[in-house]
TrEMBL record:
Gene3D superfamilies: 3.30.930.30. It comes from the Bacteria. It holds the Pfam family MobA_MobL. The keyword Isomerase does not apply. Residues 390-425 are annotated as: Disordered. The keyword Disulfide bond does not apply. Residues 1-105 form the MobA/MobL protein domain. Keywords: Conjugation. This is MobA/MobL protein domain-containing protein. Belongs to the MobA/MobL family.
Amino acid sequence: MIVDAAIHAPHIEGGSDDRNYHAHVMFTTRAISKTGDFESKKYRDFSRDDGTKTVSHWREHFADLVNTQLEQIGSTERVSHLSYKDLSNGLEATVHEGYAVTQLRRLGIDTEISLANDAIRQRNAEKTVNEQVIKELDQEITVSERLICDLREEKSEYDRKQAETQKAATIAAQRKIEHDREQAKQLDRDKFLQLQDRYKNFADSYFITINNKNQVLNDISEQLERSKKWLSKQRDVYERAGIFYHAMTHDMISINTPNDWLSSVQFDRKKKEIERQYQTQIIELISDSNIEIVVRDLRKTAAKILERGEDLPVNHQEKQTFFKKLFAKKEYVHSYETLSDYDEHVVPMLKKIEIRQKHIEHQKEKQLEREKLDEIEKKRYEQEVRQIKLENEKRYESERNQRYQSQRDFETEQPKPRPKNDFEP
């Protein structure tokens, strides 16, 4: 069918309600065929019993569309296709005024019907206002309750997030503490291995130096024994302080000695030189390696690791398989476990060095005192020399002045008259 619709604004000038926006809809009475032509008969379905129901469904659908749009724009207003009676809202329906009553109302003439409708509208307005106030209060209460509920949910969500954040922070802090603790343990293990390597390097160098010294001393001792054995085979010859004498006459003699000849005096001198040379090397080695601090820190770090119930770490180079340990040649390796060698051999040497150093310092102090005394004596002597020189100059000046004065007195003195003879006074 064909539908014609016209939307009208309220006729305010004619006395119509300013809310009376309405539409006029007209239908054709004949149906349209599939080809677009009018059917020959009128379409009377709207006049039948189902027509009223169809229009009612349209009104309901239209009300749903309007309410949907009102909700989308945030309005609380709602419309309904139902009558006041069907709505059961307590409002009264007005009486149909018709064309004549409407025209008289527009002319300002009241009728019984218009006055009755005005009274009904007044009662409905008051009831609507009261219900609106109640509705608004209910809405405020609902909003407040919803707001309280939302705030509670927000607080619950905030508390949950705070708890999760706190839990995450606690876990992170615990992990960091564990990480820092494990890192500190690893630093102790690394420090132990480093200190142990430093001790090993020192011990290797120290005992190599000691062994070399002992070997050199052993060589010259054997050289001395060979020299004594050779000398014992020489008849009528003896030796003192590197000089050979005839056993009978005790005269000094010249004798051809072996190339490796070594007298007792030479042996003592050479031994002292070797001892001094190697002692200097050992002192330099101890000083350069700072071994006292190394051993002290090594023992302290090892005690710290053992107190935690851990095993002392092992250098990767020291780790060997079972078969390597079984068939490998046994090698003495200096480590934390062999610090007894340090206590037995190095500590006494350190004490000797300390005593020697104190002796050297004492000698230096005595030398400084002697130098100070010599300086004082030198200044005193110079002061005495200056004093004597000054006194001599004063004495020379006084004697010179006396001679000068005597000469002047002599020159200015009047000569006495000579006596005429020896008997005159």
